[in-house]
Protein: Alanine racemase
Amino acid sequence: MRRTRLDAATKDLDPPFAIVDLDAFDHNAADLVRRAAGHPIRVASKSIRVRELVSRALERPGYAGVMCYSLAEALWLSEQNVSEDLLVAYPTADRASLQKLAANETARQRVTIMVDSLEHLDFVDAAIGPHADIRVCLELDVSWRPLPGVHIGPRRSSIHTPVQAKALAAKIVQRRGFALVGVMAYEGQIAGLGDNPPGQPFRAIGIRFIQSKSGPELVERRTAVVGAVRQVADLEFVNGGGTGSLELTGSDPSVTELAAGSGLFGPTLFDAYQAFRPEPAALFALSVVRKPTKRVATLFAGGYIASGTPTPDRQPSPYLPEGLKTLGLEGAGEVQTPVTGKAAEQLKIGDRVWMRHAKAGELFERFDEVHLVHGDQIERTVPTYRGERRNFG
Structure:
């Protein structure tokens, strides 16, 4: 029984604390490689935020490189020799980090920054002055636009068509101080949007329709974009996908690598997919501190709300013991989280409840350390980014 095993491993710890179940983590890592079908997976660090676990994934066959969420993070991971291939997934306006990048030859060879306009290049030039080549990746907007004015997908790049991509690529290639080495296209409306949201059958129908139309359109357009860009630039990589879209992205002949991170931890948002189901690997424990009624147990703390739309699916969820849920009128709170259900009748003051976060790495912005559990033992305890005094926003 998983609850018994986790309770035994952490019996000497006082909640709140966080764990990663290495058995589940390794299972998920292997399943992602299976789903990637031969494409190397770049580890999305924003979904991990624990240096030890980023390295653990990279040590496995099938994983290569890190997709960082800030330039400052990429520079730090380079200093720590976590990887020699660090792609910053979002454009940067961090002048201090750009100056550090320009001054560090090793980092310039390892780190690639994201751009989707000449304004990004202008900002870099203004921040650091004359400089040696800085590696850049062109990001493609992969939203689905079925009708004029309709935009379905994340608001990211300004580059949508092959003509736009080729024109920008040609200008980057001509620009002194930059080397265009990659293209990235993240299909958030597929990779990050589950097609089987629990208890929402009509929403599921709508999402599946969008994804059934958006997916084929994207494969065709991304292939055309990459072909156009390759006419003017010698690309090292074409990155796409995310945990929720590995199969689709892997079917695109223009893609050379995939990205994934959340699937290693299996947060609750990824319960909403039909095609795969990661094991819950990242958990946190809270203590029962009140029994206001027979069927309600109040836990200390727990209000670790995930980013995104302010909807109920961003709340953490009780996991073990089974049969618990939060209260609709109170939810998970800053200092207390009431849970109810038949299982609450058996809970006593001091008992622990295991919780799951809605998103992956955001959980570890709440904890300085994470206990790595193997079987019924804590294998070791390691710092999170926060525990290493690293805050990248």
